[in-house]
Design a protein that fits this description.
Layout: E1 8-18, E2 21-27, E3 39-42, E4 45-53, E5 56-61, H1 63-68, E6 79-84, E7 103-112, E8 117-122, E9 134-137, E10 140-143, E11 151-156, H2 158-163, E12 174-179, H3 181-197
Antiparallel strand pairs: 1-2, 1-6, 2-5, 3-4, 3-6, 4-5, 7-8, 7-12, 8-11, 9-10, 9-12
Length: about 200
């Protein structure tokens, strides 16, 4: 479990394709503090650390993960938002994030507002976004602005812009999306009642 508050930026320094899996070697300021079997969010995807070497660590993305996220597009030099798992004796600064990416969204518009930025995304139709609700984008806990069935926007403050991969994100790029877990449970719970009314 995570909070969506990015702890550090990592960089892919090696990529190895192995049958349907891809192994990534990540260099970061927190890599040396990790241990094998630790769960770490990489752009919002919960991955298990398989090896630690000085200031780098290895993770493996399996076929299911590659199909649901943007990890398949990572290459040497790609920068990654990193967050270690939540410790249950501290504050939750963002919202509860599982690290289980639901889908990807395409950035369709970036607006520089001279002090903040607005990013607009397009994604498959969903009822899981509500105005002022929470969403996790590339591992960052954010507030939803003006959602429709297929689009939503987020506002990024300068601190978040400078300390995450949002400064690298441009129109046409894909981002990992995890919807709020409460919304996902409510949708599943209410689905039979909605079908009955139809």
């Amino acid at each position: 479990m995570f909070t969506g508050i990015v702890e550090a930026l990592g960089e892919v320094v090696e990529r190895i394709e192995d049958a349907s899996n891809v192994h990534f070697k990540i260099k970061s300021p927190i890599s040396s503090q990790l241990g094998v079997d630790n769960s770490v969010a990489h752009n919002g995807v919960c991955l298990t650390v398989t090896k630690v070497e000085n200031d780098t660590h290895w993770v493996t993305a399996v076929d299911e993960t590659l199909n649901r996220s943007n990890l398949g597009a990572w290459k040497v030099g790609s920068r990654i938002n990193l967050e270690r798992s939540l410790v249950y004796n501290g504050r939750i600064e963002g919202h509860l994030v599982q690290g289980h990416v639901d889908t990807t969204a395409t950035c369709v518009f970036v607006q520089d507002l001279g002090g903040s930025w607005t990013f607009t995304f397009e994604l498959p139709p969903t009822r899981l976004l509500v105005n002022k609700g929470s969403v996790c984008v590339n591992g960052v806990s954010l507030t939803v602005v003006e959602p429709t069935d297929t689009t939503f926007s987020i506002a990024i403050i300068p601190f978040t812009f400078e300390h995450t991969t949002f400064k690298d994100l441009k129109a046409g790029d894909k981002a990992n999306i995890e919807f709020d877990i409460i919304g996902k449970y409510l949708e599943r719970w209410s689905a039979p009642f909605i079908r009955e009314k139809r």
